[in-house]
TrEMBL record:
It holds the Pfam family PepSY_TM. The lineage of its organism: Bacteria, Pseudomonadati, Pseudomonadota, Alphaproteobacteria, Sphingomonadales. PANTHER family: BLL7967 PROTEIN, IRON-REGULATED INNER MEMBRANE PROTEIN-RELATED. The chain crosses the membrane at residues 12-31, 126-150, 177-197, 320-345. This is PepSY domain-containing protein. The keyword Transmembrane applies. The keyword DNA repair does not apply. Keywords: Membrane, Transmembrane, Transmembrane helix.
Length: 362
């Protein structure tokens, strides 16, 4: 048991700050649409009729400057479309096509750099891998923490905050609040780790297959497209997608980034948990003809299970109750991680010095 205690304390002292950062940023991002509600048009009712969607696409493509790389259409709880451009630039536009906010870099928008911090630690792919490894270590924390708590379970007391800021009080609080949130902490870190560490997610959801097997069914068709036409009939394209998948919500249109690319449309069918869905439709950029589709609901069970990881992690399902549960878990993780670092590096107990024994007089 001693080696478990040493492993738990040393790993917490080193990785705790990373987990605290991930927990706090994740808790804030859970309510992103709510704290962006001050933007003009953010509270407008979502429109999914093809005429409104086509008008938004035309407005995005005819706006001054370069054409966007993609257009993300409004959600049920957020009435603005997001246009994404090269080099991290972008804009929010209402459903009439009027731009209400614009930026040239992710550093201009709190929600963008906060998202990058949570997912990449500002280090791109390297940071994403580091965050995934931190999540894996976090799983070990949960398991070893429960094991260590079991010995002292009779002293359990539920407190949201430590009784005092002394090391014994913080350690006791850390142990007790940690075991209360252990199931949610385990789920949060497991889902975060599975999204990032592809070898692990492949082993879990597609055992025996090569890395990338979970993404392979969504690869674009091997067809070369032409130049992007300026007069595409977006109404006809949206109608064709809706005819192929009745009742689906049209979420994203991604335009070609390089010569030969196709137009990709992303849809969310009613049974899909992902907020933007994984049902795909491809069109020719020169004339808008439909080429191919991918039905996310027809995918193997492992892929459909993997598609549920992000909605669980980001509280995109379950309503307000699950949002509160996920946000609370993030705040608890931030508290546990930061206090673990503080007590380990700055509140370590001083070694006891034994008093000198008097010399015996013979």
């Amino acid at each position: 048991m001693r080696w478990i205690d040493l492993l738990h304390r040393w790993a917490g002292g080193v990785v705790g700050l990373v987990l605290a950062t991930l927990g706090l940023s994740g808790a804030i991002l859970v309510f992103k649409h709510q704290w962006l509600g001050w933007l003009p048009g953010a509270g407008d009712a979502q429109r999914q009729d093809v005429a409104a969607l086509a008008a938004q696409m035309d407005a995005a493509l005819t706006a001054s400057g370069a054409a966007p790389r993609s257009v993300l259409f409004p959600y049920a709880d957020f009435g603005l479309a997001r246009r994404s451009y090269a080099e991290g630039a972008g804009a929010y536009a209402d459903q009439s096509g009027q731009v209400v906010a614009q930026w040239t870099s992710k550093w201009d928008r709190v929600e963008l750099w906060l998202f990058d911090l949570h997912h990449h630690l500002f280090l791109d792919d390297l940071g994403a891998t580091a965050a995934g490894i931190a999540g894996l270590i976090g799983l070990i924390f949960v398991i070893t923490g429960v094991i260590l708590w079991w010995r002292l379970r009779k002293t359990f007391k539920f407190r949201l905050l430590p009784k005092r800021m002394s090391r014994p009080a913080i350690v006791t609080h850390h142990r007790d609040i940690g075991v209360v949130f252990a199931p949610l902490l385990f789920l949060s870190m497991a889902t975060g780790m599975l999204m990032v560490l592809k070898p692990v997610s492949t082993a879990v959801f597609a055992p025996g297959q090569n890395v990338g097997a979970l993404q392979a069914p969504f690869a674009p068709p091997d067809v070369e497209g032409g130049a992007l036409a300026v007069d595409l009939d977006w109404t006809a394209m949206f109608t064709a997608a809706r005819t192929r998948y009745p009742g689906a919500e049209i979420r994203i249109v991604a335009l070609p980034r390089k010569p030969g690319d196709l137009i990709q449309m992303r849809l969310r069918q009613p049974a899909e948990w992902l907020p933007n869905g994984r049902t795909l439709v491809w069109f020719r950029p020169e004339n808008g003809a439909m080429i191919d589709t991918r039905d996310a609901q027809a995918m193997p069970t492992g892929i459909r299970a993997y598609n549920a990881v992000y909605p669980l992690h980001a509280a995109k399902v379950g309503g307000w109750l699950w949002k509160l549960a996920v946000a609370s878990t993030g705040l608890v993780l931030a508290m546990l991680g930061s206090l673990a670092v503080w007590t380990f590096w700055f509140k370590r107990p001083r070694p006891r010095t034994r008093p000198a024994r008097p010399l015996a007089i013979t």
